[in-house]
Amino acid sequence: MPRQTTHPVDEQENGSGPPAANRRRYVRVPTSMTARVSGASDVVSPAVSIVDISLGGALIAFADPAGVMINDRLVVCLQLSTGSAVLLTRVARVARGLDFRTYVGLEICQGQDDEVARLANELRSEESIVSLSYGATPR
Questions:
Q1: pTM for this structure?
Q2: How far apart are CA 96 and CA 98, in angstroms?
Q3: Domain spans in the chain, listed from the N-terminal domain onward
Q4: Alpha-carbon Rg of the chain, whole angstroms?
Q5: Are 115 and 78 in contact (CB under 8 A)?
Q6: pLDDT tens, 37-61?
């Protein structure tokens, strides 16, 4: 299982206390992928960095302030080695990091089995992960 790393936004919120228990259902995989994001305005953003990704969501970073709010729906287009995957997501978290980037936590919406399967294949091939699920129920 890959080691969980902290991100500037996590360090800012957690301070110096002990790390919080992992309640996520899926393993987060650190990545250097980029993506294009569009929202209700249909304006496609400049490329955003994907900090980490799982079969349940992703943490993305905008270099500039992002005009998104919790519960907004965003379409994320990922470039995979086998083509692209287009995912409908819901904004679960928005925070400004210590590095002045805007971090957005996304939840992948249900009913996208084909796209999620393509993402799973990509993550398995990149990280040699046997299982991408912790088997726990997310909160």
A1: 0.74
A2: 7
A3: 8-127
A4: 15
A5: no
A6: 988 776 777 789 999 999 999 999 9
